[in-house]
Design a protein that fits this description.
heterodimer; A: mainly alpha; two-stranded antiparallel sheet; 21 helices; 47% helix; globular; B: alpha/beta; two-stranded parallel ribbon; 11 helices; 11 strands
Chain lengths: 494, 432
């Protein structure tokens, strides 16, 4: 069997002059290769297939392809109808109802229909008229924006919010049907719909989209860890890291695991490549799967996953300030105000002359700095044992001209804002876990923000408190939190 | 979560952003929507132009800022390469946009000088180039050009805070500037513009109807949308008039785009050539060219690490050395561009004398993502150059004052821009 893994830095790669590589050229370098004679590209549809798309856009009208030459070099079609005006009106009206995600009165659709009729009268080309009408519908604010009126949301607005929260796409037929029947105000039905949407294949999208924004995973390839300082990191590791976090969040969702799993756990999701990168032995296979962790693996919980550690570093250095602010705001729900303008940011220095601890120490002396740094620094220092590429390290290094020497040992100890000391990441995790309601509150707030597009206001606090209280019995389970958020008045009204 | 314009090598706009974002993207290519007119040949004398080159990864201050201030400054490592142009430019250090933070995200504020912040809550608004184009851009076929080295990110913003996507293909730009469409294409284009205008009319009407049904917050959002629709409508009206006019002819052959995205300098030189041609033919007077950061290894001797990674040098000597190679090449290419403008004669004066060229970046220090102490070089135009304006590194001088100076030298009677409250101190107009 032959396996091809493009981009895997740990495999031996042949060196060629470039251009076409001839048969046998890799032989002397003792590298196997594969010749690809031709590749056939096939279109993959995320939605319906060609026939389905045609049906949605053109109904049952008969369609003939025009030769490219007749249409000015572009592929085009001619649409035939015995009643072009009526068909045009019907199709535009249907399309508008879909695009506007709610039943659309003829009165609302009429201007769009009129525009298409105008084009039809001028051009006598039904396809062109449809295109113009559809284009206008897609420029409409009714398509571009959610239509939500202040107060309690109507059923169609609820269907739209639910669908974009869990699927990141338009509501499907079942949601629209329930909305039309006026059933989406019923808590049991909403609960059942959340279950249905999450169990559907599209529901796998939820943790990915949430993590992209909540945990900044969309920035995973923003920097590339320095290859000399952090060898072995490549796109395969990076992709595996994403899959680790996605798999982990999906499991939390599937099994309603409590928010404490955001902070600690005795398992994670690895494949052989990522396990090797983390220096964990005995994992084989390319597919990411659940793996039990031992204490000496130094992993567990979201915050020690490679993807998180990578997006909170710049590829060359780590900063307890950057990671500390990120951790406070994203996982603890503690907002940190921006630094005062006249205080310069810390200048990263990988030459190892002065440790980051020494550089930050003077902040503690200045009371105006200390107010924030007592909150920022504990998580920041707790994570110092993880390098910018997400790997565990015991020491810093001193980089010099072309060399990398062992530097001072890492000291991850610190004290919490309230004075409780910890030695390392393990101790820090224990202290954070003492207040799981705070973790749950943060998750609820992040989900509400994601689901409504509005940030949490002071007046929303009692509602968030109620969500947290409601899920306490389920150990603040992730799925329970999703249900409680969706059922809350913040989500169901504007 | 909030929409924020962020620095991203592969810019992705997902549907959620589009549905909920403050900005609205309309389905028409910006450049064609902006087509306007030729310059009025009866206007007195050659007009003033403005070109801004913006860098995504800053310039290492220790290599850029000269020692000593005033006219007797000693050129820095980077400035040595362009010391022959010394009398034609000014170095400004110790200046930045007040209140602007957010590291890479502040790219959105380079030319607007508005704090947008990392939270993305605050709203951006019109950038300097668009402000100029709004009042002075109607004289040319293109009121402005927004260009980039790769991707569509740009620091150009409309009044209601939508980013104007950049054109990154010199070949496509050349075609738009100089190659006439066939009569059939022109007819098609005119028809498209017409159809677009009726769609805009319809959307305007429908937005008004919808507004009556909505709450106050959403009304403001729709108002912003309506403003952008109206702007687009106006531009389309202007472009309708020019769809049939022939474009200027140049001796320069159509360029071939550089496929290697890492060839930062090659792309900079090629696009700079196009900018010169656009100015020479008076196709536009306001140009922004964004040199966003590239992640890959810039193909230059002595460089073997990615450009973005080098900008996070952590004071490592080897990284700093490689970074200096890349940045010296950027400054040299900028110098070549200035020389080409100064060699282009227009009614007896050099094109550079009629073109203010700004080179700056949101990052004063890419290694710690600081937005203080922005790198600033200003060449050409009506200013008296040849000096280093060194302001306080700790307590920065407000750079928006430079924008006020630039507006005034364009002949716009303005004494404010963003947080700028007057012209830049120490920067005088030439008397001749």
């Amino acid at each position: 069997m032959l396996e091809i893994r493009p981009g895997d830095d740990t495999l031996k790669m042949a060196r060629f002059q470039g251009g076409q590589v001839g048969t046998g050229e890799g032989g002397p370098q003792d590298v196997p290769g594969v010749a690809i004679e031709s590749i056939r590209m096939e279109r993959i549809h995320r939605g319906p297939d060609n026939r389905g798309v045609q049906h949605l856009l053109l109904g049952d009208l008969s369609v003939t392809s025009l030769p490219k030459k007749a249409a000015g070099g572009k592929a085009s079609v001619s649409v035939a109808s015995s009643q072009p005006k009526r068909d045009l009106a019907r199709l535009i009206h249907n399309f508008a109802s879909r695009a506007f995600r709610r039943p659309t009165d003829v009165a609302v659709a009429q201007p769009y229909i009129d525009l298409a009729h105008g084009v039809l009268a001028d051009s006598r080309d039904l396809a062109a008229a449809l295109r113009a009408g559809y284009r206008a519908v897609l420029c409409s604010p009714r398509f571009l924006y959610f239509q939500e009126q202040p107060g309690k949301l109507d059923d169609f607005a609820i269907a739209t919010r639910l669908s974009y929260l869990l699927w990141n796409r338009m509501p499907d037929d079942e949601l629209l049907r329930l909305a039309k029947a006026g059933k989406l105000a019923d808590p049991t039905i909403i609960h059942a719909q959340v279950e249905r949407l999450l169990s559907h294949p599209h529901g796998r999208q939820f943790v990915r989209d949430v993590a992209d924004q909540w945990l900044d995973l969309s920035l995973i390839d923003f920097t590339e860890p320095d290859r000399k300082l952090y060898p072995g990191f490549d796109v395969i590791v990076q992709q595996s890291m994403l899959e680790e976090t996605h798999g982990y969040l999906q499991r939390m969702l599937d099994e309603d695991l409590g928010v404490k799993y955001l902070i600690d756990s005795d398992f994670t999701f690895l494949n052989s490549r990522l396990a090797r990168y983390y220096r964990i032995n005995g994992i084989s296979g390319d597919a990411v799967r659940q793996v039990t962790l031992r204490p000496q693996d130094h992993r567990g919980g979201l915050m020690t996953q490679g993807a998180i550690l990578k997006v909170t570093a710049n590829g060359t250095t780590t900063s307890p300030v950057i990671r500390g602010v990120w951790f406070s705001e994203r996982l603890l729900g503690v907002e940190i105000p921006p630094p005062p303008a006249n205080v310069p940011a810390i200048e990263p220095d990988i030459r190892g002359a002065k440790s980051i601890r020494e550089m930050l120490a003077k902040h503690k002396a200045d009371t105006s700095c200390a107010v924030c740094h007592v909150k920022i620094d504990p998580p920041g220092f707790a994570l110092e044992n993880y390098d910018p590429s997400g790997r565990w390290r015991d020491t810093y290094f001193r980089a010099g001209r072309g060399s990398k020497r062992k530097g001072p040992p890492i000291d991850a100890s610190f004290v919490m804002a309230d004075g409780r000391p910890f030695q390392d990441i393990a101790g820090f995790r224990e202290l954070v876990l003492a207040d799981q309601a705070a973790l749950a509150r943060n998750v609820a707030e992040k989900l509400l923000t994601y689901g409504t597009g509005a940030s949490i206001r002071f007046a929303d606090r009692p509602t968030v408190d109620a969500i947290v209280a409601e899920t306490a019995q389920a150990d603040f389970g992730f799925r329970s939190l999703v249900h409680a958020v969706v059922a809350s008045p913040i989500f169901l009204s504007k | 979560m909030n929409k924020s314009i962020h620095f991203n090598f592969r810019r992705r706009i997902n549907r959620r952003t589009l549905l909920r974002g403050l900005g609205v993207s309309l389905g028409l290519p910006w450049l064609s929507a902006m087509e306007s007119a030729f310059a009025d040949p009866t206007a007195p004398g050659p007009p003033q132009r403005f070109v801004a080159l913006t860098l995504g990864l800053g310039l290492h201050a220790a290599n850029l800022n000269p020692s000593g201030t005033g006219t007797s400054y000693k050129p820095s490592r980077y400035l040595q390469a362009i010391d022959d142009l010394r009398d034609q430019f000014t170095v400004i250090s110790g200046a930045s946009h007040p209140g602007v933070t957010g590291g890479h995200r502040a790219e959105a504020s380079i030319l607007t000088a508005r704090p947008v912040g990392s939270a993305g809550g605050a709203k951006n608004t019109i950038s300097l180039d668009q402000h100029m184009a709004k009042y002075l851009g109607s004289q040319t076929r293109f009121p402005s050009l927004v260009l980039g080295s790769s991707g569509s990110n740009s620091p150009s913003y409309t009044e209601n805070g939508s980013m104007i996507p950049a054109e990154s293909s010199p070949a496509k730009l050349f075609t738009r500037l100089f190659i006439d469409d066939s009569p059939a294409q022109r007819a098609l284009q005119a028809k498209r513009v017409q159809e677009g205008r009726s769609i805009m009319d319809l959307v305007t009407e429908d937005t008004r109807r919808l507004t009556r049904e909505l709450g106050r917050g959403d009304r403001q959002r729709l108002d912003a949308y309506l403003t952008s629709v109206r702007d687009l409508e106006k531009r389309m009206a202007a472009s309708e008039a020019w769809a049939h006019r022939p474009k200027p002819k140049v001796a320069h052959p159509k360029p071939v785009d550089i496929g290697n995205a890492n060839d930062f300098i090659g792309r900079q030189k090629l696009m700079s050539d196009m900018i010169r041609l656009a100015l020479e033919t008076d196709s536009t007077r306001f140009i922004v060219y964004h040199l966003g950061g590239s992640g890959g290894v810039v193909p230059l001797p002595g460089v073997d690490e990615g450009y973005h990674s080098l900008s996070h040098h952590g004071l490592d000597e080897e990284k700093l050395e490689q970074l200096a190679v890349v940045e010296t090449a950027i400054i040299s290419a900028w110098g070549e561009f200035l020389r080409s403008l100064s060699e282009t004669n227009e009614h007896g004066t050099s094109l550079l004398g009629k073109t203010s060229v700004l080179l700056t970046s949101n990052l004063g220090n890419a290694s710690n993502h600081s937005n203080q102490n922005m790198p600033v070089l200003l060449a050409g135009g009506r200013f008296r150059h040849g000096q280093h304006l060194g302001f306080d590194q700790k307590n920065n001088y407000p750079l928006p004052n430079l924008f006020v100076s630039l507006l005034q030298q364009m002949g716009l009677p303005e004494d404010r821009f963003a947080s700028g409250t007057g012209t830049m101190s120490g920067l005088e107009f030439r008397t001749s």
